[in-house]
Design brief:
Order of helices and strands of chain B: HHHHHEEHHHHHHHHHHHH
Order of helices and strands of chain A: HHEHEEHEEHH
Structural class of chain B: mainly alpha
Distance between the termini of chain B: 43 Å
Shape of chain B: globular
Helix content of chain B: 55-70%
Distance between the termini of chain A: 67 Å
Radius of gyration of chain A: 29 Å
Helix content of chain A: 25-40%
Largest sheet of chain B: 2 strands, antiparallel
Shape of chain A: elongated
Number of helices of chain B: 17
Number of domains of chain B: 1
CATH topology of the domain at 57-168 in chain A: Alpha-Beta Plaits
Strand order of the largest sheet of chain B: 1-2
Largest interface: A-B, 15 and 13 residues
Strand order of the largest sheet of chain A: 2-3-5
Oligomer: heterodimer
Structural class of chain A: alpha+beta
Number of strands of chain A: 5
Chain lengths: 180, 381
């Protein structure tokens, strides 16, 4: 391996007076002074949200209007700060979806506890909970900062998927076949 | 003019004092705003640009422009300082604690009176300086009164009865003593040069400007051209004397919290602030007068020449206004330079400050004085 001796020159007189360096620094700062500002004027201008952004979590419906959550509570158990609380219940008789068996009676996400880790989205077997692009939450009381089921479904809207897992299950069952 | 001169002396003095307060306070406030804006621009930020008085929202162009410039932020800051609660911490010596900011204001405002800020052409056709107190000791008075400012810092640091203000005050006093020497020595060549043998001796700042407005190559050149080393030493020492970055040892937020004004708040703190900017204004004024030709527009072009070109030489008031505009413009340029340097150069370490002061600047100032003294003696013998 070749050894390259590095010349360690002593500082020149000009360098030891600091003055050329200060002048160079002044030139740098004056360039920045005439440059337009980099600042985003926040409330008027919004930042571009990158794909995969983890914002507020919300529940979704499928294109038939069925809430996808089946109240398995995996998200509640995986949630590190324990921000999610689900009260499971039976799907009401006569809704035509009794075969799903379980649905959330109440689904609360405390946005003061949520750390936007995205584990709920990752763990959900039903693709029912998603993290949105929403990053600005505000409220005047603690109670206001808890998102209830209606709010979560409204925030999430409809997921345009075409699995219709539970419809297929029901159809297979009625045809006497095995599960799809 | 005659009406003013016929007033009783006390009324005149009171009016002059009021004028100083009414001019310096808003300028100092504007400086604090300018400081924030300049720092913002240098860091590629817009700076304060939101505050607006509701009535101005409907003024078409001027309102948004002033809002962008942060002009209303200045008013908001001023109001905040006026209406904030005046707290005095429990551990302090109350009398000296309250006295310190007052003492800071006295030299800061009184030095303004010794600085000529313009000139007009009097009845005899001579260029006469405009100043509040035309005393012959001129610069000596400025130095003598300005060096009293350190007492307020020492008093503030001592009366605060707490660690960081005390350290800040100690640093400030050592620093100011160290750099005062170089500051004074650096201006001596200027006065050696203008006080030629056989002429009546003077320390007047107006005379220095008069000297820089003469005809001819040497007469018209400003002293920063003929005495660049003096100008350099003076400006470095001025940074140290006004406690500006890179010499803001007495405050140095990173190691002393706030330095001597750590325990101060509200209006008392604002007084220190105004005093600092006032010192800066007077310091830059003295620098402009000594080395940058005072109210002369350009080197080798004197105010009288400019007045001749503009055809206003016969109007003393117009000449006065032009001279004041030129002088204030130069001071604003200097203040911008102060801010520009502040947001460029990092703070020196304390031992570096002492080393620069005693081992570099002082020998350089003495050598500079000796060289110029010999040179001037040879030229003017």
């Amino acid at each position: 391996m070749a050894v390259v001796p590095i010349q360690r020159k002593p500082l020149t007189f000009a360098e030891r007076t600091y003055l050329p360096q200060i002048a160079a620094g002044l030139m740098t700062t004056i360039r920045h002074l005439v440059k337009p500002a980099e600042t985003l004027q926040y409330p008027e201008q919004r930042p571009a949200i990158p794909p995969g952004y983890r914002g507020a979590p919300a529940l979704v419906r499928d294109p038939h209007g069925r809430e996808k959550c089946v109240s398995c509570q995996l998200c509640e158990f995986v949630c590190p700060p324990k921000a999610i609380r689900i009260s499971p219940g039976a799907v009401p008789e006569g809704s035509g979806r009794e075969h799903v068996e379980k649905g959330p009676l109440a689904f609360d996400i405390d946005m003061l506890r949520c750390i936007y880790c995205g584990l709920c989205e990752e763990v959900c077997p039903e693709e029912a909970i998603f993290l949105l692009n929403q990053y600005s939450m505000s409220g005047l009381t603690r109670a206001e900062m808890v998102n209830h089921k209606d709010k979560l479904l409204e925030m999430g809207g409809t997921l345009p998927d075409t699995h219709f897992k539970w419809d297929k299950k029901k159809a297979a069952e009625e045809a006497g076949g095995a599960h799809h | 003019m005659d009406f003013f001169l016929n007033l009783p002396l006390l009324v005149q003095v009171a009016l002059k004092g009021l004028a100083v307060i009414c001019v310096i306070f808003p300028i100092a406030g504007a400086c604090s705003m300018a400081e924030r804006k300049v720092s913002a621009w240098i860091q590629s930020r817009p700076g304060p640009n939101r505050t607006i008085i509701p009535a101005f929202r409907w003024v078409p162009v001027v309102g948004p422009f002033l809002q962008k410039l942060g002009a209303f932020q200045l008013l908001a800051d001023g109001l905040k300082f006026l209406f904030k609660e005046e707290t005095v911490p429990g551990q302090v010596n109350r009398l000296y604690f309250i006295l310190a900011p007052v003492i800071a204001m006295i030299p800061a405002l009184s030095t303004v009176t010794f600085v000529p800020f313009g000139a007009w052409i009097d009845r005899d056709g001579r260029v006469a300086p405009l100043m509040l107190a035309n005393v012959d000791v001129g610069l000596l008075a400025v130095f003598a009164v300005a060096s009293l400012g350190i007492y307020s810092i020492i008093l503030a640091g001592w009366a605060s009865n707490s660690k960081y203000p005390f350290l800040g005050a100690m640093r400030a006093s050592a620093q100011l003593v160290s750099y005062e020497l170089s500051l004074t020595l650096s201006v001596l060549p200027v006065f050696l040069w203008i006080n030629a043998p056989g002429t009546p001796g003077t320390m007047s700042l107006a005379k220095v400007v008069e000297f820089q407005s003469q005809a001819g190559f040497w007469g018209g050149s400003w002293f920063f051209i003929t005495m660049p080393v003096s100008a350099l030493i003076f400006i470095i020492a001025l940074f140290a004397e006004t406690n500006r970055q890179p010499f803001d040892m007495p405050e140095s937020e990173s190691d002393l919290v706030g330095g001597f004004h750590t325990e101060y708040g509200a209006f008392k703190w604002a007084l220190f602030f105004v005093a600092e900017y006032s010192n800066m204004i007077v310091g830059s004024g003295v620098f402009v007068l000594l080395f940058l030709g005072g109210w002369n527009p350009l080197p080798w072009i004197s105010l009288a020449t400019l007045a001749g070109w503009l055809g206003i030489a016969a109007h003393p008031v117009l000449v006065g206004v032009v001279s004041i505009v030129i002088f204030i413009g130069k001071i604003i340029g200097m203040l911008f330079f102060f801010m520009w340097v502040r947001w460029t150069v990092p703070r020196f370490r304390y031992d570096q400050v002492m080393e620069i002061g005693w081992k570099k600047l002082l020998p350089l100032a003495i050598a500079n004085l000796v060289v110029y003294a010999v040179g001037i003696a040879l030229i003017q013998k």
